[in-house]
Amino acid sequence: RALDAARTAQAMNGDRPNAAAVYGYLIEAGIQARQGHRRETLEAVVQSDKMFSQLPTDAALADGIHVPEYFLRWHQSNALTAVGEGRLSERLRARALELPFAAKDDVGRALLRLDQASILFKSNQVDQGCHAIVQAWNDVPDEFLAGQIPRRTEEILGELSTEQRRAREVQGLEDLLRSYTPPASTIPGTLDA
């Protein structure tokens, strides 16, 4: 159903450049990437870029939401990482990180660094992959080290080969991550550990 919704957004306004279509292509890229469809992911990324480059500067969805370049590059990089396109994703990740919005998006910035770690591990650059994970965790306030960041880290470490898992750097990283204690809940009515 999500893919149908993405394609509906792409078809809005026909071939005329519009923000909804950009979002639709980005959603499709993410879906195709998670399903392991490399060619379809690349096609959706290219189409999102093409549509974004043709948007008028005042283009927005009906509710007034614009498509920031940071959002575009973040999602393109993430989808390309998921299908193992290291060189392409690195260029887009670097662009996303240099945009001003990156400084305001602690979680998004950390997830981009974790995507970088994933690519590094896939190219057997174990030490650099471990460093990227540590950097991702160190770059965000403790309250953000719950949810997406630990889940993505666990996913990356779960994909390592047996040989990579035995590496001294990975063992040290896993020890460091195990030593982390998430902050006590700040939700009223919950018990603090």
Structure description:
- With 193 residues, the protein is mainly alpha-helical.
- It is built from ten helices and no strands.
- Helix 2 packs antiparallel against helix 3, helix 4 (69-82) packs antiparallel against helix 5 and helix 6 (106-122) packs antiparallel against helix 7 (126-138).
- The longest helix is centred in the N-terminal third of the chain and has 17 residues, at 38-54.
- The relative contact order is 0.08.
Overview features:
193 residues; disordered C terminus; mainly alpha; 0% strand
Could you report the average pLDDT, rounded to the nearest whole number? 88
Give, in order, the helices and strands: HHHHHHHHHH
In terms of DSSP E residues, the strand content is under 5%
Based on secondary structure, the structural category is: mainly alpha
Helix content: 55-70%
E-strand count: 0
**Cα shape:** elongated
Oligomer: single chain
Main sheet specs: none
- Give the distance, in angstroms, between the N- and C-terminal Cα atoms: 40 Å
Helical run tally: 10
Poorly predicted runs: 185-193
Q: Which radius of gyration do the C-alpha atoms yield?
A: 18 Å
In short:
The chain is mainly alpha-helical and 193 residues long. It has helices at 2-11, 19-34, 38-54, 69-82, 86-98, 106-122, 126-138, 148-158, 162-166, 168-179.
